[in-house]
């Protein structure tokens, strides 16, 4: 394959690597199922319907149920935690009843939204009435509660050490946790397979880095192969 030696590592040139890749055949049906799994798990209902029509790939689930799940997610991402919790209870009340950590994080998000709105007194009352008892039952929640209440101690909250709690990413984190719980309750996968495959690709490259210099994928968005350094 025209391999050279660079120190103790074998060097695999780009041409040889591409030749090997060209010999690998992935059935189109497998690729289509991977795409459909991503669309269904992430809640892209209309895209899933269109993809089913164009590719003939069945979604494997009731797409109307996805719409309900996405309404929960949208409510939480908009900061309407109470509406999200009500919708979850309509879908399956056991989700919140059987998962104390998820329930705490939703209540924590309610506290964050009160602080965001400037309702200091209401936030303190809510923390004392609803979150403090949860932290007493489970000390693991205490640090998160203290960090959230610390938002009230800063005049410029967003510039504070705990300002990240007010970022959109915090809402997204809570929404993803709730979304995964709903999927689990519906006997569906918690995460789409595509990101897991990408993580596996990165892991495989790290393992191979120890043994050879080869064309690597540096940017997952483009999947462009970067040739290895030339052997001296």
UniProtKB/TrEMBL annotation:
Pfam family, one: LisH
Domain CTLH residue range list: 65-122
Superkingdom to which the source organism belongs: Eukaryota
Protein's recorded name: CTLH domain-containing protein
